[in-house]
Design a protein that fits this description.
Binds and transfers iron-sulfur (Fe-S) clusters to target apoproteins. Can hydrolyze ATP. The chain has 11 helices and 13 strands. The chain has 384 residues and is of the alpha/beta class. The chain has 2 domains: 83 residues, GMP Synthetase, Chain A, domain 3; 280 residues, P-loop containing nucleotide triphosphate hydrolases (Rossmann fold, 3-Layer(aba) Sandwich), CATH 3.40.50. Helix 1 crosses helix 2. Bound molecules: adenosine-5'-triphosphate and magnesium ion. The site of adenosine-5'-triphosphate (ATP) has 20 residues, from helix 3, strand 12, strand 13 and helix 9.
Length: 384
């Protein structure tokens, strides 16, 4: 059973919170509805602290969804109380001083430190899972040296068209599985070795960000190249990143690099919140024997790292053949329903969304960093 967000909202429109006059969707009391399979999370913001009104709202939400949408829906209602004068009329949007990207609400960078640990795999599966949850999703493949999104989404042969928007020509992202994609791979020949100078790469990326017709997006995911280098700085200079997801495998070499990756985002001059760490290839499991787990790269290394440096642990993904195969044929594994892999990505995606919601509630929007001097660059790089 897949619950539909618009049906949930319709059901919530039948509820009026005592003292508010309008229904709870119109009055802005419903801040967020996240659906996932037969689960739904409803975030409410009420202006009254009276306990009976809060309880009443909770019960009404559960009743409306059970009666009007699905009687077995698993519902979580989070209620927050805000005095009316502090209630924000606008949800937190990313606004860069001087350079807003209209319509894009959350930008999430996926990074790793070490190469080959599964950033692109995690990014593509997060993207399709978010799309399945009903979010509007974009994916920017910023790995100019080894773009993978065109292959992972089976759109290798596509070329973005140019469309007019506000009198300007813009490139239209390629869409598949509900995800809008732009990648440098669309503009190069498959066998061509792309050698970019830093400023050229930065320019190409900027075009894919600002000269593209992304439309409204709830999430833009950015698949970063490995390491902590120029491209990372350039992206953080151009974009207000909502938060970063760091991917690591459990072995020590990868963990050491993941630690540096986290440190890069947390630098004073960069200050991008780290939403958490994903442990990829956490254990090998043969698909026909899912209870047999072989910890070939070590056990729970990324989990311990996240505890050690005090960032959330977002979940683990097993090493299974189908993930690699799915990547190669261009149909992210999380699209396969009722599988261990779908479940693992659902868990992680839910955690990412919750961390984003939490982050947006507690921290101001990230500003694009300004590193204009070589000394600034060196300071960041020396942290490596
Ligand atoms: N959990 C997994 N199970 C099986 N194969 C996986 C898993 N995660 C990633 N892979 C495979 O490992 C290879 C490397 O993954 P991927 O390209 O996502 O890594 P990356 O971190 O983006 O690499 P790069 O640093 O080169 O950008 C791919 O072939 C991918 O299909
Ligand atoms: Mg990659």
């Amino acid at each position: 059973m897949k619950l539909d967000k618009s049906e949930i909202l319709k059901a919530l429109e039948t509820i009026t919170v005592a003292g508010e006059g309008k229904n709870m969707v119109e009055s802005g009391a419903v801040k967020n509805v996240i659906t996932f399979g037969d689960e739904v999370i409803v975030d409410l913001v009420l202006s009254t602290p009276a306990l009976h009104i809060r309880k009443r709202a909770e019960v009404d939400v559960m009743k409306a969804i059970h009666e009007k949408v699905y009687e077995k829906a698993k519902i979580t209602v989070n209620v927050k109380v805000e005095a009316p004068e502090t209630q924000k009329t606008q949800p937190q949007k990313n606004v860069i001083k001087g350079k807003p990207i209209p319509g894009i609400t959350n930008i999430i960078a996926v990074a790793s430190g070490k190469g080959g640990v599964g950033k692109s795999t995690v990014t593509s599966n997060l993207a399709v899972t978010l799309a399945k949850m009903g979010f509007k999703v974009g994916l920017l493949d910023a790995d100019i040296y080894g773009p993978s999104a065109p292959i992972m989404f089976d759109v290798e042969k596509e070329r973005p068209l140019s469309v007019k928007e506000g009198g300007k020509s813009k490139m239209k992202p390629i869409e598949n599985y509900g995800v809008k994609i732009l990648s440098i791979g669309f503009f190069t020949q498959p066998n061509q070795a792309v050698v970019w100078r830093g400023p050229m790469a930065a320019k190409a990326l900027n075009q894919m960000i600002f000269d593209a017709a992304w439309g409204e997006l709830d999430f833009m995911l950015i698949d970063l190249p490995p390491g902590t280098g120029d491209i990372h700085l350039s992206i953080m200079q151009s974009l207000p990143i909502t938060g970063a997801v760091v991917v690591s495998t459990p072995q020590n070499v990868a963990l050491a690099d993941a630690r540096k990756g986290v440190a890069m985002f947390q630098q004073d001059s960069i200050n991008v919140p780290v939403l958490g760490i994903v442990e990829n290839m956490a254990y090998f499991t043969p698909e026909e024997l899912p209870n047999n787990k072989y910890y070939i790269f070590g056990k729970e290394g990324a989990k311990y790292l996240s505890e050690d440096i005090n960032v959330p642990f977002l979940g683990e993904i097993p090493l299974v053949q189908s993930i690699r195969e799915a990547g190669d044929v261009g149909r992210p594994a999380a699209l396969q329903t009722a599988t261990l892999v779908e479940q693992a990505f659902e868990e992680i995606t839910k955690n990412v969304v919750q961390e984003v919601v939490h982050r947006n509630e507690h921290l101001p929007p990230t500003e694009a960093i300004k590193i204009t001097t070589m000394a600034g660059c060196a300071a960041v790089k020396n942290k490596k």
